[in-house]
């Protein structure tokens, strides 16, 4: 969240793209999708169309799929990939969502979509192929999973 706030202070355009620092995604697809549907948010999805995940072990795939499944059942957010972090936002929509969101960590991405739907914003999706990083390690661990579940239950109770 702090990186989003910092980025918004320096953004000069009408749209903000949030993405992994390795620049592994094709931003042009997001602008095409946004223009086609005039969406407030365009989110990359690994779980729809020809999207997918490559390089993850079974445990990591199960955690990601499980988190998305539980969220779908409890919150019905109308988006297929709530834990991904590659998105295009209208700048004013992102600013409004940042004011409303309280989560930290992995649950933050989910809360952004849930709050967007709650506020009546439109969300489009673009299938992406996610390839696991070559360098560095994921921050996903037991504490993040527990935090995600707590955040999910909080959203379920408050939305």
From TrEMBL:
Which keywords does this chain's UniProt record carry?
Endoplasmic reticulum, Glycosyltransferase, Transferase
Q: Outline the extent of the Glycosyltransferase 2-like domain.
A: 2-97
GO molecular function terms here?
dolichyl-phosphate beta-D-mannosyltransferase activity
- Subcellular localization(s) per the UniProt record: Endoplasmic reticulum
Claim: Transferase is one of the keywords in the record: yes
GO CC: one term? Answer: endoplasmic reticulum membrane
- Name residues in a coiled coil: none
The protein's matches in Gene3D superfamilies, at most eight in alphabetical order, are given as:
Spore Coat Polysaccharide Biosynthesis Protein SpsA, Chain A
Pathway(s) the chain acts in? Protein modification; protein glycosylation
Which reaction is this enzyme known to catalyze?
Answer: a di-trans,poly-cis-dolichyl phosphate + GDP-alpha-D-mannose = a di-trans,poly-cis-dolichyl beta-D-mannosyl phosphate + GDP
Q: Which InterPro entries match?
A: DPM1-like, Glyco_trans_2-like, Nucleotide-diphossugar_trans
Q: From the UniProt record, give one GO term of the biological process aspect.
A: protein O-linked glycosylation via mannose
What EC identifiers does the entry list? Answer: 2.4.1.83
Indicate yes or no for the key word Glycosyltransferase.
yes
Per the record, the similarity remark reads: Belongs to the glycosyltransferase 2 family.
Subunit-level organization: Component of the dolichol-phosphate mannose (DPM) synthase complex.
Q: What does this protein do?
A: Transfers mannose from GDP-mannose to dolichol monophosphate to form dolichol phosphate mannose (Dol-P-Man) which is the mannosyl donor in pathways leading to N-glycosylation, glycosyl phosphatidylinositol membrane anchoring, and O-mannosylation of proteins; catalytic subunit of the dolichol-phosphate mannose (DPM) synthase complex.
Which named protein is this?
A: Dolichol-phosphate mannosyltransferase subunit 1
Q: Which organism is it from?
A: Anhinga rufa (African darter)
């Amino acid at each position: 969240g702090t990186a989003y706030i910092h980025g918004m202070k320096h953004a000069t355009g009408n749209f903000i793209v949030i993405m992994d620092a390795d620049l592994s995604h094709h931003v042009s697809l997001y602008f095409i999708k946004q223009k086609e549907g005039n969406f407030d948010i365009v989110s990359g999805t690994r779980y729809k169309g020809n999207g997918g995940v490559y390089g993850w072990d079974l445990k990591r795939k199960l955690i990601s799929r499980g988190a998305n499944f539980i969220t779908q059942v409890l919150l019905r957010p109308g988006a297929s990939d709530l834990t991904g972090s590659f998105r295009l936002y209208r700048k004013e929509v992102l600013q409004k969502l940042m004011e409303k969101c309280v989560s930290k960590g992995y649950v933050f991405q989910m809360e952004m979509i849930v709050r967007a739907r709650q506020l009546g914003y439109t969300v489009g999706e673009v299938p992406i192929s996610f390839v696991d990083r070559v360098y560095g390690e994921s921050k996903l661990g037991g504490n993040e999973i527990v935090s995600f579940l707590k955040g999910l239950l909080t959203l379920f109770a408050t939305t």
